[in-house]
TrEMBL record:
Belongs to the carbon-nitrogen hydrolase superfamily. Nitrilase family. Pfam families: CN_hydrolase (PF00795). One of its GO terms (molecular function) is nitrilase activity. Residues 296-308 have a biased composition (Basic and acidic residues). The lineage of its organism: Bacteria, Pseudomonadati, Pseudomonadota, Alphaproteobacteria, Rhodobacterales. Residues 296-321 are annotated as: Disordered. This is Nit6803 family nitriliase. Residues 5-271 form the CN hydrolase domain.
């Protein structure tokens, strides 16, 4: 039997000064998408509070101030911010995939959050390897986040940006039979060549995995670009690179992509197309050769401290009178 899921991919600008103002944009977008019948809403990479565009155009010696500002605006999990997103998802009965800068004590991480339609946080994962300039900003994730989770819209997996260039990371999700893949990129970065590369990558993953891909990229206004750097030469690196798109398991655009400005893409995902594609080519099933080629995936969370025996909490000793 055919099952239709209405998906929304959001391309909007963050607020580069305020977590609270960016979060307000997220909640408004969920309201708008749900009002238009969306059951799944995908936001850009590290959208709350904003992607660290400064790290792409500023030398490391000049990144201290904006990096510390990002620490102050970053999101902890759980927090009031995650609660509010969860409540909005539950209110509308929608699934949302949100990119955040996650603060875990003294480190920041590129994190993806999957909220189910009842508000449950089904997954928090961290980008396994920050790319190039991003390594000055974020720590590394681990294999525990390479999970596909059951949600109201189906089996949902997620990767961020150039993680899609890691075929084994993608394969880890493919082996878990994802039906919908949520992808996130920063947008407004590198130029038109980046948008072209994103399109190729999204269409290839849809074909290879036999799933739908819902990809969201961000957007910067001209005033925002100028606020990141006044250097007009460097500003060129903060334009283009937008390819918000929804791709079918046959590698086709379900609707024309959004490459400029703000907006929300909508498409009906006919889930019977997943079976139609996999009947011909199931890369982790009848088309696989596991006796020749297989993936070793360590899902153990990375820990800096391993406790080998039960801990006894220290009991505070009151001061004597």
């Amino acid at each position: 039997m055919s099952r239709i899921v209405k998906a929304a991919a959001v391309q909007i600008a963050p607020d580069l000064t305020s977590r609270e103002k960016t979060l307000a944009r997220v909640l408004d977008a969920i309201d708008e998408a749900a009002g238009n019948g969306a059951e799944l809403v995908v936001f850009p990479e590290t959208f709350v509070p904003y992607y660290p565009y400064f790290s792409f155009v500023l030398p490391p010696v000049q990144q201290g101030k904006p990096h510390l500002a990002l620490y102050e605006q970053a999101v902890t999990v759980p927090s009031d911010e995650t609660r509010r997103v969860a409540e909005r998802c539950a209110h509308h009965g929608v699934v949302a995939v949100l990119g955040i800068n996650e603060r875990d004590h003294g480190s920041l991480y590129n994190a993806q959050l999957i909220f189910d339609a009842d508000g449950t946080l089904r997954l928090k994962r961290r980008k396994i390897t920050p790319t190039y300039h991003e390594r000055m900003v974020w720590g590394q994730g681990d294999g525990a986040g390479l999970q596909v989770v059951d949600t109201r819209v189906g089996r949902l997996g997620a990767l961020a940006c150039w993680e899609h260039y890691n075929p084994l990371a993608r394969y880890a999700l493919m082996t878990q039979h994802e039906e919908i893949h949520a992808a996130q990129f920063p947008g407004s970065l590198v130029g038109q060549v980046f948008a072209e590369q994103i399109e190729v990558t999204m269409r290839h993953h849809a074909l290879e995995s036999g799933c739908f891909v819902v990809n969201a990229t961000g957007w910067l206004t001209e005033d925002q670009i100028a606020s990141v750097t006044p250097d007009e030469t460097l500003q060129k690196g903060l334009r283009g690179g937008c390819m918000t798109c929804i791709i079918t398991p046959e590698g086709r655009h379900a609707v024309p992509p959004l490459t400029e400005g703000e907006g929300i893409l909508y498409a009906d995902l006919d889930m019977s197309l997943v079976t139609k594609r996999k009947r011909m080519m199931d890369s982790v099933g009848h088309y696989a050769r596991p006796e020749l080629l297989s993936l070793r995936h360590d899902p153990t969370p990375a820990e800096t401290r391993h406790v080998t025996a039960p801990e006894t909490p220290f009991q505070p000793i009151p001061l004597e009178d």
